Amino acid sequence: MFSLRTLPALLLALLLSACATEKAPPSVSAGTAAPDAARAGRFFVVAANPLATEAGLAVLRRGGSAADAAVAVQAMLSLVEPQSSGMGGGAFMTWYDGASGKVTVYDGRETAPAGADERMFLDEAGKPLPFSTAVVSGRATGVPGALKMLALVQNAHGALPWNNLFGDAERTAREGFVISPRLGRFLKRGSFPQLSAPDARAYFSAPDGSLRKVGDRLVNAPYAEFLGRLAAQGPDALYTGETARRIVAKVHEGQYPGTMTLADLAGYQPAVREALCNPYRIYLVCAPPPPSSGVGLLELLAILERTDIDKRGPTDPQAWYLFAEASRLMYADRDRYVGDAAFVSVPIKGLLDPGYVASRAALIGPRAAETPPVAGTPPGATLAAADATLEPGGTSHFIIGDAAGNVVSMTTTVESIFGSGRMVDGFFLNNQMTDFSFSPRDAQGRPAANAVAPGKRPRSSMVPLVLVDRQGRFAGAFGSAGGNAILAYVAKSLVAAVDWNLPTQQAIALPNLIARVSFQGEADKFPPEVIEGLAARGVTLRPGQGEDSGVQGVMIREGGRFDGGYDPRREGRAIEETLKK
What we know:
Number of strands: 20
Radius of gyration: 22 Å
CATH superfamily of the domain at 7-22 and 39-273 and 389-507 and 547-578: Gamma-glutamyltranspeptidase, small (S) subunit
CATH class of the domain at 7-22 and 39-273 and 389-507 and 547-578: Alpha Beta
Strand content: 15-25%
Structural class: alpha+beta
Distance between the termini: 33 Å
CATH topology of the domain at 7-22 and 39-273 and 389-507 and 547-578: Glutamine Phosphoribosylpyrophosphate, subunit 1, domain 1
Helix content: 25-40%
Largest sheet: 7 strands, antiparallel
């Protein structure tokens, strides 16, 4: 937690100085946040699937808190969007407390089992395993953290009993749900290695042996039974007992078995962390610290603030050029330095140092260089090995605000599409260990910041954001799916909503541009004049890869007006209601 004890004065000072500190005070707090009468009694849910949105709203209508609704939303997503997140995965949550103005980060990122080692994804010759082999192996699965993290948050901030939060998901699992176009699209492609895994194949197979399709009804009785036990027993239903034994047995199967033990599962602990906050325009933007890439997102915004992108707009090729070049600079730094700060030194303060940010912004010239930029040397940095971690996108984001003003911004994942393709009790196990660098050291023997180590959390691109205004009030939230492109997806949407003042829905719907090494994105969605203008500046945009963005966003506009948006590339809903007394 990061603290603003007298928020208006301190926030103004932050905005004027553009200064960030590596070690923040214990909580983001205004002492008492300025009351927001326009928002009193109003609540909202923004999620990537309408059944998940409705599950969260149902909890809020009963007087539940945002923490309660988050449990219900995740339980439903695990069922109806299994390609993205689930009970066998991990998550980051940024929590805004409506009464105090505090912003807290809850880290439910998976951890490497105690038996993991830095060479676990190397073959007998010391070469990295093919990703398609590693992703379906038992070694791919880290100790899941999302459920224990949700239990921690719900215990601290819940208003309803834990066992009152799973009814909608349990009933839907038992009665079945209709396969949506998005899930059906992944099943139709069938090219993901996970869909060749026996568990995934059995779950999604029709009676004739083919994979099910859009419009088919899918029943998941094992998941319904698990949710019943979860409601009655709490998170121990996953971390100990029969489900835990099945998880351990499952990851020990196959050619490259994992090392996870019952002790690894029982010993998992979510982390409560200080939010990493930095000013952007009139807001304070708060994100999770490492192992999340929140510092990268904040560095990108800080670089952009030193350009004139705010005076341009979505049809100006120079605006997109500035965004692309700032992105490449940020990614070079992020890829080099960010890892689990409990194991490696991450130069957070240096990456956000105003002088360093200015030096990076000064590298943006009139034309993109053919060679991608290299990482800089921020103050306090120890040079680590170059990193080439693969980060496929199999993730979901949701935002929940309750009638008391509390807000959840949560990104949740099983990593790749359908995780590892292995299932236990109706949910997929994650393949989060493949978010570590397969090559632990470079030719000089320097360790990668994101190398595997026992108990370590892999670097994550998940950046669930919360925006706070000058009065300490909740002002917005953003997050996305999309692997390493998450940072670009979220930053684009935030720039469009804040700098270009677009409605959130329009901001999210803008074409995506991801500039990490090469330039990728939705080339066919940009106006021709933007594509031509980018080409004239040395940016040749090629179609991207992965499972598209999954941005969900909320801005609170003048007068307390709710301005929510969901990514049209998915199936989401953004709904606000008023609590009936």
